[in-house]
């Protein structure tokens, strides 16, 4: 588990900060970290404006997954991105195919081979953490991501992400979408349920600050 993101450079950093979740200690979310040994590697590419977002779930996801990396950026250096997408694993982008792809001039993604599911340890799930608009821009600015096979989620339940407005009715948080994708790729529908349960606690904690 690795991460190269730095502590947010705003007023929060002047207060006592948890070194793990990078939040002020009084709003620390480490109590919700739930250890899960994922077989499919996860690479989270986080938009810079999400780093200091208190409602963001990517940090909790990263701290919970034993086999994950979190990188912050918008337009990644091609050499750096190439290293993150190293060919030691089969890279799969967690992103829907939309009608906007063609209008934006995005490269056609390679097909996802169902036979890959037989070897989940050889898969790397690439996740874009940001609002719909931010993630679209990240995809547009990083051509290597455009060519990756995409994983469409199937039969996901309604989002528990009640503290943040969704762009689409079926849009999920980064943590939820990744948990459901991993369950699909690893063919284990219950393995990541504890992570969703922990997310409910995280959401309740954030909601309590709004009500206070």
Characteristics of this structure?
alpha/beta, 212 residues, five-stranded parallel β-sheet, 30% helix
End-to-end distance, in Å? 35 Å
- The strand count comes to 5
Report the β-strand fraction as a percent range: 5-15%
Q: What's the helical proportion of residues?
A: 25-40%
Radius of gyration (CA) equals 17 Å
- Summing up helix and strand content along with how strands pair, one would put the structural category as alpha/beta
Which series of helices and strands comes N to C?
A: EEHEHEHEHHHH
> How many alpha or pi helices?
7
- Morphology call: globular
Which parts are unreliable, with pLDDT below 50 for 5 consecutive residues or more? Answer: 5-13
Q: Order of strands side by side in the largest beta sheet?
A: 1-3-2-5-4
Would you tell me the overall average pLDDT? 87
Largest sheet report? 5 strands, parallel
Topology:
Layout: E1 2-3, E2 41-46, H1 58-64, E3 68-72, H2 78-84, E4 90-94, H3 100-103, E5 123-129, H4 132-141, H5 143-146, H6 174-185, H7 193-211
Parallel strand pairs: 1-3, 2-3, 2-5, 4-5
Structure notes:
Helix content is 30%, strand content 12%. It is built from seven helices and five strands. The model is unreliable at 5-13 (pLDDT under 50).
Short description:
The chain has helices at residues 58-64, 78-84, 100-103, 132-141, 143-146, 174-185, 193-211; strands spanning 2-3, 41-46, 68-72, 90-94, 123-129.
């Amino acid at each position: 588990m690795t991460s190269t993101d730095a502590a947010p450079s705003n007023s929060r950093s002047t207060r006592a900060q948890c070194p793990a979740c990078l939040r002020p200690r009084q709003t620390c979310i480490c109590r919700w970290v739930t250890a899960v040994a994922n077989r499919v590697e996860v690479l989270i590419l986080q938009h810079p404006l999400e780093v200091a977002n208190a409602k963001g779930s990517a940090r909790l996801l990263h701290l919970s997954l034993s086999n994950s990396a979190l990188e912050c950026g918008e337009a990644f250096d091609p050499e750096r991105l190439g290293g993150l997408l190293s060919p030691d694993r089969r890279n799969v982008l967690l992103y829907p195919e939309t009608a906007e792809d063609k209008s934006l001039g995005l490269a056609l993604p390679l097909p996802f081979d169902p036979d890959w599911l037989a070897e989940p340890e050889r898969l790397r799930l690439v996740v874009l953490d940001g609002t719909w608009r931010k993630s679209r821009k990240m995809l547009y600015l990083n051509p290597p991501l455009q060519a990756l096979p995409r994983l469409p989620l199937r039969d996901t339940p309604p989002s528990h992400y009640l503290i943040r407005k969704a762009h689409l009715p079926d849009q999920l948080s980064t943590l939820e979408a990744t948990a459901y994708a991993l369950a699909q790729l690893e063919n284990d529908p219950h393995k990541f349920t504890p992570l969703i349960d922990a997310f409910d606690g995280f959401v309740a904690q954030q909601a309590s600050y709004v009500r206070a």
